[in-house]
Amino acid sequence: MREKWSSRSAFILASIGSAVGLGNAWRFPGLAAKYGGGAFLFVYLVAMLVIGIPLLMMEISVARYTRQGAPGSMRAMNKKMEGVGWLAVSNGIGISIYYAAVFAWVILMFVLSFKFSDMTGNTEAASSLWAETIKTTGTTTGFTTFSWPVVGCLIAAWALCYVCIRNGTTSVGKVVKFTVTLPVLCLLIMAVRGMSLPGAMEGFAKLFIPEWKALADSNLWVDAIGQVFYSLSTSMAIMFAYGSFLNKDSNIVVDTIIIAFSDMFVSILAGIVMFTTMAGVGMLDNMSASGIATAFIIYPQAIVKISNSGLFNMIFAFIFYFCLITLAIDSLFSIIEGISTALSDKFKLDKKKTTLRICLIEGVISLIYVTGAGLAVLDIVDYFINSYTLILTGILEMIAAGWFFKTTKILDELNRNTGKFKMPKWWFLPSIKVISPVVLAGLFIWNLVNLIKGGGIYGAADGYSLKANIIFGWVLVALILCSGLIIKLIVRLKSKDDFEEDERTWDELKET
Known about the structure:
By secondary structure, this protein is mainly alpha-helical. The protein has a single domain (8-497), classed as Amino acid/polyamine transporter I, CATH 1.20.1740. It has 22 helices and no strands. It is globular. 55% of the residues are buried. The model has no long low-confidence stretch (mean pLDDT 88).
């Protein structure tokens, strides 16, 4: 008997928790600042409606019908497309390993927040706190150097992740009631404080008043679409897993719109916090599109300038990093849930034991990110996954659903329990069959063009060495692309022990 969500709210909160992560708190405000605030918001909203929501609906509805994770859902539509599902799973593996390290850094900053009480006005000390503690070399050398406080935080991150998902939907449903609502409350408190700072309205205006000339910049469109794509947790097996636990009477159309607009609301709220706080302390021009720089270098500088009271600044720091912890934890465990669901479905494994093994194995691998070279490796891995494999997976998912399957069957499944409010054909079908794959393909090609202009493989990720880009970038891409073949090889070996695959197609599946 497949596990199910205990309630509709549990599914919605878990999905919102997955979608709303550190990218909302860091990357969204940085990109909005880079492209003139309101203009970026406009493109972001259009991309959410045209691409993001239909893609999210497709993944959830297909998984609800098939009651399987990403590989099984893709196989049900077309047997040749199972490999696309394993691409999504592999993306999740790569992302979760380095995401755990970032989560560990957030835990570290939370623990170290007491030091802000003695740093009032000392921006130099605040900006160096994180870098000195993690002992980064800033290069791909220094793998033998560990920061033991960070190692401890990394162990805590993985332990928290496992505790949250050890019992599947049961434990997840209990956890997300707090990990989704608490960061919103924290952000609201911080937004009120930010708005009360002198000069804060300058930041508020920069966020919401458009500079329409920015629309002429093609990079704005690329980044805005990319932000929607990554923020909704599509193409990394998460929403397939969550959708597979839904009751057959769930209303996917309404739930998806709630999830998408909640994600957008939190992004804008985080933008208000960042813009007003930075403007209020006179650092609006220091905002960076880099999440790492904003959260661990620039924001600490802002914290020590918020007031002349060290105690107040310390409390603000604790609230801010606690908020980031709650944002990070449900994003991490949702990725692990997607991986665990896919593997346990495919090989008929015990779900709880599979989850534990994934956390242990990935936990060991993630130690590379707490070495002196960890930050450089993270830069490279993050660049290649976000720029290539995630986008390619999205393109292939749309092609599989739009061109190798009868898309109207997905639409029928989507609208099964919608009542009067249905997903219209004119919105869903063009997006899945034409708009999404074409736009995502354009985004993929644009990234390749930028790669070539930047000096080919050598300049792929911030000018790191050719050797580093090959080992941590192109080899990783190759492994992800070959993941489907690796699974086939494992199945072939297991078939000698009387292992049988579930090869039922969409029309052969019976809902249970």
